Each structure stands twice: as structure tokens, then as C-alpha cells.
């Protein structure tokens, strides 16, 4: 077992969640992203991962995210972000002794995170009633496709399906064309963020009001639906079904992407005074002073005309020229950033949003920084993402198991 790989300067700050013990049973994105967030602010996150299955030669154990997308030294570089500040214990939850160890860990924990299909933990003897009786202070986050109740609860659900059912996929893409994804697993991440908020609220209730632990039930599609703005009120009041609008912001004008000589810029000129300044910059002051364009309702009615005027101005100019002139006029605008743009941007660097992290294999890699930024207890990267089972022995020793007991469990395959 390799020793944890601390990051430079990581021990100098006491995290806001220091002293909080979190058990993470989730895999891939939604549950682990919540664990990542809690860990960055000081929580001790113990990640339970399945050992390799001897019945499937060549199959990898652990969280499948370890093998997703681009690999370095046999491990996904995504893993280096998602699992930093976590400890890994390889534990077979299908095994009775593995389940017993899980119960012992949970008995001493503040938070349990899981994102299995409803009923999975109950099948392992780890349902809420059992765990609550064992640890009445436990806060349990359960993320699933459709929630723990309702007619769809037993259906398999991934983030992409949640995005579709939550209404997001219908609005992405160009009008009349196939719906597209946002380019990232936004449904999973939205569920994780809602789960994190729920955990913190439950911990506050426990600490301030003396309440017991409770369950936070997050459904992927509900997390997406919760950010869908006026979608349902507009349908309820007017029978309006909002449709895809490409890069435009329907009903809010002008706000769109505009072609330049060397790419695209996004311009948000939809504030009343901002609109007038924008029209001055593009040489159309008569539009800026038109009585019917002094409010958003009038501008929305003439959005095609406004977009055409702005597009005529941006088209022969470079992105740099457009952004320079709009910046001087205090009109919100920006280029469409690629990974390269982000990596080279001085503002990202100035705000510590690109961090240099050392993996447990000794490689250095640039990774995203930590959000949000707290003034007194900022988040930190205290240790690199673990190899599978890196911390099995130390975690079991903390439970009081002797080295001989651990060796026996390893021989039986209950731990690895």
C-alpha cells in the first residue's frame, strides 16, 4: 500500500468541514461529485469501491470512472479531480463480512452518500431503517434516476435521461434539429450540487436544532427540472411550450452569439442602458434611442432586426477588436473558450482556478481549482486521488481491526 500523497501547503488551512466523516458509496459522477465537494472543504471522505471480481478475469475493480476517457499511467485524468482528498477502501458489499465492515464505518460517520438504484442498499442490509437505528445522527444522501418513491423509482436512470425528462434536452440545439447534449454530464452534476446543499442543510438542522439525521432524496430529473426557470409557469399561464433557440435567449434581447472574422463572440446587450451603449458602439444610435426599444418587450419584438444589425457590425471584425470596443463601452461580451483558452487565461490563474496537482504516481497535472471561494476557510487539495484500496489497511485499523484480521478478510476476498 502506498502512502497518501499530500499536496504542497495543504495542511496549513483548517477546512470549514474539518472533523466531518463522510462515507461515499457512489460511482461515476453524481454521488462522487458531492463527495469531492465536501472533501475539498475539509471532510474526511472514505470511498468504498468494489474489488476486482475474480470471476471476471481482466475486469477492473473500483469506480468505473477510473477508466473513463483519457488515461495516464492506466488511470483517467478525470479521476485525479473527482477523487482528490478521498481515501479508498476496496470492500465487497455483496459479501456478508464486507457489509458488516460497511455498517461499522457508517456507525461512526456523519454522512453517507450513495447513488445506486433504489433498493440496492436494502438488499445488502444497509437500508435507511437499519442504518438510522445504528447511527441516529446519520445524514444519508440518496441520488437516483427517479427518486426513492413514485412509479418510476425502479427504472435505471443516468444523467442523460434526467436531462431529457427534466426538460433540458428539448431546449438544446438549433430549432428543428435533433436535440443535443450540453457537452458534459450536467444532469449528474446538478444532482450532486443539490445533494450537497441538502447534506449541508441536514447537518445544520442536526447541529443547530438538535434534530436527528435524515435522508436527502435527490432524483436526477428533478435536479434538472429545478433549474428550468419559467418553463412550467409559461405553459400553465399561456399554454406555451418553450422550444430550442440555438444560441439565443428567447424573449430576452439582444443576447446571442455573433460571427466575427475569426470566430464567435457572445454579446449580452439586454439591459436597457447596456442596449443603448451597444447601439452606439455599432454605429446605430437611432436604434438605441427608438422609443419602442427602451424596454425588453419592445426589443424582443424586433429581435431579428437587432441581431442582424449587431451581426453586420461584428462580421468584418476580429474577436479581439469586438471585445476591445465592447469592453470600453461596458457591454458584457466574451469569446467562446476552449480548454486551451481557459488554460492560458490570466484571470483563471489569478483566481487559482487552475491548480498544479501531483498524482500518487508522481506526475504533475493541471486541474480545476475549487469553487466556491471562502475567505476564512477556503477549500484545499490535501491529497491526491487514491489508487484502488490505497487506504484499506489504515481505515480498517481505525475500526480496531488487527493486522491478522485484515489479512484474513483479504484472503477471503471481502477486502482488497
UniProtKB/TrEMBL annotation:
Coiled-coil ranges per UniProt: none
Alphabetic keyword roster: Transferase
GO function terms (MF aspect): transferase activity
Keyword Transmembrane recorded: no
EC number(s) recorded for this UniProt protein: 2.8.3.-
Cross-referenced InterPro entries: CoA-transferase_III, CoA-Trfase_fam_III, CoA-Trfase_III_dom3_sf, CoA-Trfase_III_dom_1_sf
Protein name: CoA transferase
Native species: Variovorax ureilyticus
